[in-house]
Design brief:
single chain, 71 residues, mainly alpha, 2 helices, 2 strands, 46% helix
């Protein structure tokens, strides 16, 4: 099935999720550039583990870093 055959609401949700994922990748890249270890806690992999078979919207990503790296 092509993307054009999908429900418009599902297409919008997927587009929003991709925007969140892109921003998360940019933030993670900035941490790498500063040699700050980080761990992304949201996104497709975690959603699949917690909600198998469901397509779920999300509006944020959680990135874990050590308290000593907060500054």
């Amino acid at each position: 099935m092509s993307a054009q055959g999908l429900d418009p609401a599902l297409r919008l949700m997927a587009a929003r999720n991709l925007i969140v994922d892109q921003l998360t990748a940019e933030v993670s890249g900035a941490f790498v550039a500063e040699r700050i270890e980080s761990l992304g806690l949201k996104g497709p992999a975690l959603a699949e583990w917690l909600y198998p078979g469901e397509v779920r919207p999300y509006a944020d990503s959680d990135v874990l870093i050590k308290p000593g790296d907060w500054q």
